[in-house]
Amino acid sequence: MMVMNDAYFAAGSLHWSFMAKFKLAGSKKTPAKSARSAIPCLVIVILGIVIMCLLFYFSLQSSTS
Question: How many structural domains is the chain composed of?
Fold first, then answer.
C-alpha cells in the first residue's frame, strides 16, 4: 500500500491555485480607441525627425566650409 504525505497534497493544491485562467479569443469586444491620442505622438515624432535632419544638414555644411 502506497502512503502519500501531506507535502504532496499541499504542493498539488498550490499548483492548482496558480493555474492560468483562459478566456476565449474574441469573447469580449473592446471599443475602438479614438485617434486623438495618436496625433500629438505623431507630431512629436515628425518634429524629432525634422530637428535631426536639420542638425545633420548644418553639421555637414559647417564641415565642408
Answer: 1
